[in-house]
Amino acid sequence: xxxxxxxxxxxxxxxxxxxxxxxxxxxxxxxxxxxxxxxxxxxxxxxxxxxxxxxxxxxxxxxxxxxxxxxxxxxxxxxxxxxxxxxxxxxxxxxxxxxxxxxxxxxxxxxxxxxxxxxxxxxxxxxxxxxxxxxxxxxxxxxxxxxxxxxxxxxxxxxxxxxxxxxxxxxxxxxxxxxxxxxxxxxxxxxxxxxxxxxxxxxxxxxxxxxxxxxxxxxxxxxxxxxxxxxxxxxxxxxxxxxxxxxxxxxxxxxxxxxxxxxxxxxxxxxxxxxxxxxxxxxxxxxxxxxxxxxxxxxxxxxxxxxxxxxxxxxxxxxxxxxxxxxxxxxxxxxxxxxxxxxxxxxxxxxxxxxxxxxxxxxxxxxxxxxxxxxxxxxxxxxxxxxxxxxxxxxxxxxxxxxxxxxxxxxxxxxxxxxxxxxxxxxxxxxxxxxxxxxxxxxxxxxxxxxxxxxxxxxxxxxxxxxxxxxxxxxxxxxxxxxxxxxxxxxxxxxxxxxxxxxxxxxxxxxxxxxxxxxxxx
Amino acid sequence: xxxxxxxxxxxxxxxxxxxxxxxxxxxxxxxxxxxxxxxxxxxxxxxxxxxxxxxxxxxxxxxxxxxxxxxxxxxxxxxxxxxxxxxxxxxxxxxxxxxxxxxxxxxxxxxxxxxxxxxxxxxxxxxxxxxxxxxxxxxxxxxxxxxxxxxxxxxxxxxxxxxxxxxxxxxxxxxxxxxxxxxxxxxxxxxxxxxxxxxxxxxxxxxxxxxxxxxxxxxxxxxxxxxxxxxxxxxxxxxxxxxxxxxxxxxxxxxxxxxxxxxxxxxxxxxxxxxxxxxxxxxxxxxxxxxxxxxxxxxxxxxxxxxxxxxxxxxxxxxxxxxxxxxxxxxxxxxxxxxxxxxxxxxxxxxxxxxxxxxxxxxxx
Lengths: 522, 365
Fold this sequence. Notes:
Chain A: Keywords: ATP-binding, Nucleotide-binding. Chain A has 522 residues and is α/β, with parallel strands linked by helices. Chain B contains 14 helices and no strands.
C-alpha cells in the first residue's frame, strides 16, 4: 500500500528515506521504511507507542544511523552523522521533552551553540527574531527567563530556535502531548503558517484527531513498518471522519468510527450493599506547590466506579495520595469495609485491600533500573512466598512474574529487562498487574490512560471495568471527560481541592459536569 | 548479541542471558580495569622520569615490597583489614543512595574507643570477651556519632554529604581531645592511649604477621554484599537508593531506613577503627589519622559497589600504599607520590569509563 502513492517527482523531496531499517537487540524498530518529506507539507507520522516513530526521528536528526537503506537530502544520498550535521543540513528537531535551559533567558537559549570564541551576537539575533516572528505572527519575549514561560510558549521558542538556524525541515516530536487544547490549536495554526512559507514539517503524534486536523500527508507506522500513507490529494478529498476511519483501519485493521467512544455497559450496582470505601470530611493542608483538600466526602459501593472529574492540578493527586496514606491528612475519616484506616501506614492500607495505581509510572510507580520481575513485588518486599526469613526466593519471584507477564500481556524481552526500557503501555501493565493482584478491594486509578496509545488505553479501560465487575470499588481519577463518561456510574467534580458536586452518569451528565467544572451549580 | 528472541513478537520469551555474553562481559570488565591501570602506570612513570627517578626501579620496589616479599605481602594483607570494613560500610550507604563521607571521623572515634576500652577490659575479663566488648563499644560510639547527619537527612532533608564531611572534622578533633584529656597513658610523655599488650591483640594467622582481622574484614564485606543483593532488607535499601519516591509509594519507612543505613555504615567504620587498633596498632597517638576512609571511596566506586570486586580493589590499594611507602623511602621520592599514583589511576579509570560509555552509546545509535 505504501509504495503506490510515493511519488514520481522525487526531485522535490527535501529529505527522503529509502528502505531504512534499524535494529536494536531483540526488536526491529524500523523495517524498510520509505518516506518522502516535501516543502509546503505537514507530514504526519502516526503510530502507537513503540511503532518506531522515535527511532525514525532519531535517524533524521542524526542521533542514530540506519542499519540498512539510505537517507537522501535534496536527492543526494547523505548519511546524517550527528545532530550538528543535521542542523547544518537544515533539519531542526523539537523533541518531546523541552530542551531549553530554564534558568537562562530566551535570547541566551537561542544563542547557545554558537562558536565559543565569539561574543554572542545579540543585536543580530534580535533583528532575525523580529523578522521571523513578524512573518509567523507570533510574539516571543526574548528577555524573559524560560522558566517563566508556559509550555506552549517554550515550544514556540524551540520552533523559533530551529528557524533562527535556517531549518528547512522541522520535526515536531509528540509536541502536543503537554499542551492545553488552546495551545494545540495555536500550534496547528503556526504549523500552517510555517508550511505556507515553504518549510517542510514532520509532525509526530498518536492522536488521530490532530493528524486529521493538521496534516497534509499522513504516514502510518505499525510495529516498525510503514503500513500506509494518505497523500495530500486524497487527504483533501476525504472529510475528517473518513480520514479517521481510514487511519483506524490502517492501524488496527478494523473499521470503527471513533474507537474511543465505547458504549457504557449497563452494570448493576447493588444499591443496598454496604459501601466498601467511605470518606468523610477528608482534609489535607496545602503545600507550596500543591493545593490542599477540604471536606471531601463520598462513598463507593462494591462494583461501582466513581469518577473524579476536574481540570488537572485541582487536588486530584493529593486526594489519591491522602487515601493511599502517602500524604498526611489533617482531618476526616477514611473507612475500608467499615473499619477506620486513616491512621494506618501505606503498607497496612495496602494489606487491607486498598490499592493505588499512580499516574507517575516511572517517577514513583517503578524503579526504572530494576528488572521487571522485581517491580511486580515492590510493594510486597519481604512477604512470603517471595522472601523467606528475609531471603529472596528467585525461583518463586520469577515464576510468579512470568505468570503475571502472561496474564497481563506485558511485552518485555525478558523478566530481567530494566522496567524503564519498556514502553509506557507495558509499564502500565506491570502496575496494573501489581495493584490488581490478589487481595484488592478498593482500587484508586489516577489518570490510568494518560500518555498511552489507543490499544493500551482500551486495554486499560477494560481492566478497570473488569475490576469493578469483580465486585471491587473503583475510584477513577481522570482529566479526560469522555473516559469518565464512558466508564463511571457516578461522577464527582473536584475544584480547588473540594468536591463541588456529584452527579449520576445519565444522559445529561456531560452538561451538568461542564457547568460544575466552570463553577456553576449543576 | 543473542538473537534467540527473534520470532516471539509477543516477546514473552524469558531468555536468561546466555553464558557467553556474561563471559564476554567479564572479559570486557577486566580489560577496562587493567588497561587503564597500565596507562596510569606509564603516565606516572613519565612523571618519575621528569623528576629524575627510574620508574622501573620505583615500580620494582612497589611490587617487591607490596606484593612479592614475604614481609611486604603480609603487611599488605594486614592493611586490608580496616579498609575492608570501611568498604563494607560505604557499600551499604552508597547502594542506599546516601553519601556517607564521614568515614574518617567514625573510624577514629571507633579506634579511640577501642584503644581506651580494650586495655582496661582485658584486665577484668577473658581476652576474647574483652575484645568483643571493645568491638561493640567502638561500633556503638561510631553509630551514635552518625546520628546527627542521619536524623538531619531523614527528617529535615539536609544534604548528608555536607554534614558527614563536617562531622569528620569534628570527629577527628574530638578523637584528638579524647586521647589527650581522657584516655592518655600517664606512663609515657607522648600523648597516646594505653597500649594493648601484643599477646592480647587479635591472633595472627598461622606463622605469619597477618592479622586475623583480615578474615573479619572479608566476612564483613561478603555478608554486606549478600545482604544487599539477596535479602528483602537489602532490596528495601536499594529501592530507597534508586528511587526514593518509589520507596514512599511502596510504603517503605524511608526515614527509619535512612537512620538504619547511617548506623550500619558508621558502625562498620567504627569496627574498622577497632580492628586496626585491636589487631595491629595497640594504641592511638593523638595526631594519628591514616585517612583510610577517603582513600577507600574511589575503590568502592570502581568496584561499582560490588563486594567481591571491592575486595580486589582494596587489595590493589593496599599494595600501592604499602609498596609505595617503601619505594618512596628508598628512592628519595616524596612519600606522597603514592597518592599521586593512586589519583592518576583513578583519573585514567574514570576517563576509560567515559570513553567506553560513549563508545557503547555510539554503537547502539
